[in-house]
Every structure is written in structure tokens, then in C-alpha cells.
Amino acid sequence: MELPFAESYKIKMVEVIRRSTRAEREKWIQDARFNVFNLRSDQVFIDLLTDSGTGAMSDRQWSEMMLGDESYAGSSSYYKMKEAIRDIMGFEYFLPTHQGRAAENVLFSTMVKKGDLVPGNAHFDTTKGHIEFRRAEAIDCTIDEAFDTQISHPFKGNVDLGKLEHVLKSNPAERIPMIILTVTCNTSGGQPVSMENIKAVHSLAKKHGIPVVFDSARFAENAYFIKMREKGYGHRTIREIVREMYQYADVATMSSKKDAIVNMGGFIGFKDPELFRRASLYNIMFEGFITYGGMSGRDMNALAQGLYEGTEFDYLESRIRQVEYLWNRLNDLGIPVQQPVGGHAVFVDAKRFLPFVPASQFIAQTLVVELYLEAGVRGVEIGALMADRDPVTRENRYPSLELMRLTIPRRVYTNNHMEVVAVALKNIHDRKDSITTGYQIKHEASLLRHFTVELEKI
Ligand SMILES: *Cc1c(COP(=O)(O)O)cnc(C)c1O
């Protein structure tokens, strides 16, 4: 018999979590105004809100914490992080930031101005927020296949080169400060970008003299999919694939809370010393001196170690196979999920799951609340709430996909937890025909409203 797969780590420290009753959860979600961001974490049994900063650090990362150098300038931790970034991604210059959106803030302050256009593949919400905040426009050039959850395409994060070329040809280059390639593409379902597509985007960008920025939060998971799914990469190591990917990037913004497996941290990688110099000014203003930028020395140490662990094949295989485990169970149970499996999360197609809830009543959010009530599992909406209003017309934007994202933290839960999630969704699916109404907004912020929105049941 072939031996089954098992994780390439064992558990040295545990954290107690608590189940609750449905009656408790009904009260808690009401008090949270039906926004799961307002729940207390101890009101949640299995927390699949995000994989951002929620991973479990290794014994080696914790050891590195003890070796942190907290000097204000020129700490050894800064140099350790610099060495890891150069080694793994090939960037000679970098700025530490406290997380990914801070990297965006510093970089976009340097490069993006009012009236600019920033094409890319389904920009992440904070990325889009930082672009629109500067009165510039994010243009989504993702391939059409990404918008049909039932089509199985190995690289649904890919850029449609025709769409991108159209943007580049029909606008002056001065209005396009960068092209953003998100690897893997969070918004379209944790879907990877192929090496072939990365190369093609890069050569199109060079033809028009435009820099390519990788939004790198899940760069290692992207490399894993290239290894598993793209012809010619099966025998390459993850690190070799990562190095090749970054040959085609001019700049990288990184949320280290994802593939560097730390609880807080980020950075910007640069090839151009002049751009690095200009961005340093904003880093000092917003984040801190250029050798710590909002991070403590111990955190920079853990991050450097995390970059090495996060690019090991055995780790990535354990991680992505757990995501796949949940994805397989949901498929078996007839739950409509995004095809094929993505890197960090399973995306449930809420429109197919709840066909009787109108789009104006926030379909995916309705499913998120149902799942919480059923089993104390916290997922997150990627739908009309997150899509926000059009910055000009202020009308609600209704995206083509209404998704509930079940995001798996790194090295945190077991497959028994995944099993609870699967059965909870099955129970809801069995009574889906009785769920016909959703929610309306009582209060919302003018930007990134999904974090703080208050809802009431219709
Ligand atoms: C998480 C994330 C960000 C923002 O990073 P934070 O660390 O949460 O500020 C940007 N882009 C992508 C693709 C992300 O997943």
C-alpha cells in the first residue's frame, strides 16, 4: 500500500480553543452587527478569517526572536533580513515596513499620483484602496476564466495580455506608473500566475518602459503551483523557481504575515537604487528609520528565518495539501467551490450556494453569518461589501463573483478542524432553499467599508 501523506512537522506547543452553543453565537453575532470582524476571537471556534499573521512560528523562528538586535540603526537583524531577501528574491535594496499595506503606502507615495492608471490582476483590497485614495485607478486585467468558478484553469491568476496591452496602448506611459502582478492572486481565489505569464507581462511592460511590481504576499505558494502545474518546472526547487520569478520584477511589496510565516511585518524590495532612495524618505516619515521601518529587531530575525522555511517544498506541500483536503471534502459534499484549488484558502461560490438571496442583500456575507451560527467557524466575505462603492458615482459595485473565503492559517489547525468546517457547510447546504433574505447596511465607512460595516437582518 502507498503510505498516506502526513505533515512534515510535529506540534510542540498548543493553544486551547473553545466551542460554544448556537444560542451564544446568535447573541454574539447580533452584538457584532453581523460583521465577523467585530467578533471577539474567543467567540470563534475555528478562525478562517485570514491567513494573515495567524500562522504558527517554528521553534527556529522563536529562537531567532531571542537573538534580535534592537539597535535603532544598522542592527544585525536588519542585515539578516537583507541577506535573506537578497538570497531568496534577489533584491539588492529593501525597506522594512510594519506590514504589506505599509509597503504599499510607502511605494505608492513615491510612484502613484492623481489621475494615474495601475493595471494588474485583481488588485488586493488594500492595494486598490491605496491606489484610489490617491485618486488613481486600478484596472483589473485578469483573464476571464477567473470569473467563472466552475472553469478549471491551472493559472487563474494570469493577466490577460490583450487587456493589458489595450490599457498600455490607449494611454500615455506617463499615466501608468507601474503594473502590479499579485502572486498568488488573493482576490480571484488564491490562484497562481504562471511563469510564462509572468515573463509575458514583463516583456510587455519593458516594451512600454513601465516597471513591474510584484505584490508578493504568497510568492512561495505561487512557486509551488508553478512547480506542480507548469511544464518544465517539476524538477526545479522552490527557491530556483522563486529566483526565476523575481528576475521579472522591478519592485516587490511584501506582506510577511503570509509566506514569511510571521505575525507582523513587511518590506519593499527594489532593484533600482534611485527608486529605493526616493522611497526611503517616505519610509522614514511613515514607518521608521530605513533599518527597522516599523519592525522590532526580533521580528526581523523571525521574518528572515520564515522566508527560508516558507520556501521549503516540504512545508509548502503540507500547507497546500491541507487546503486541498478541505477543498476535496467540500467537492465530495456537493458544495460549489472555486475550481481548481488555490494556495491559501477555499473559496465557496455563494451565488450558487444561496441562489435565493438577492445580490443587493449581500449573498456571501449571508453565508458567512450562517456558517458562524452553525459551527462557530469564521470565514470572510469577498463580494459586494468588499467591492465597496464606485469612487466617482458612489453606487454599490456588484462584482461578478460573490465568494466566502475560508482561509487556512499556516501550521495551525488539523484536518479534524477542516472536517468540522465541511460538515457545517453541508448542514447549511441541506437547508439552503429556506435562506431567502440577507442583510442591509446600517453604517459604513467611505473606504474599505467591509472591515467596520454594521448590518441588520432583512
Ligand atoms: C495581505 C495582503 C496585502 C496587505 O498586507 P497586510 O500585511 O495585510 O497589510 C497586500 N496584498 C496581498 C495580495 C495580500 O494578501
Explain what you see:
The chain has 458 residues and is α/β, with parallel strands linked by helices. The chain folds into two domains: 22-51 and 313-457, Aspartate Aminotransferase, domain 1 (Alpha-Beta Complex); 59-309, Type I PLP-dependent aspartate aminotransferase-like (Major domain) (Aspartate Aminotransferase, domain 2). The protein has 16 helices and 14 strands. α14 (363-375) packs across α16 (415-430). The structure holds pyridoxal-5'-phosphate.
Q: Keyphrases for this structure?
A:
single chain; 458 residues; alpha/beta; Aspartate Aminotransferase, domain 1; Aspartate Aminotransferase, domain 2; 39% helix; binds pyridoxal-5'-phosphate
Kindly give the count of domains.
Answer: 2
SSE string: HEHHEHEHEHEHEHHEEHHHEHHEEHEHEE
Cα shape: globular
What is the CATH third-level topology name of the largest domain? Aspartate Aminotransferase, domain 2
Class inferred from helices and paired strands: alpha/beta
What distance separates the N and C termini?
54 Å
Number of strands: 14
Q: Report the sheet with the most strands, covering strand number, pairing sense and barrel closure.
A: 5 strands, mixed
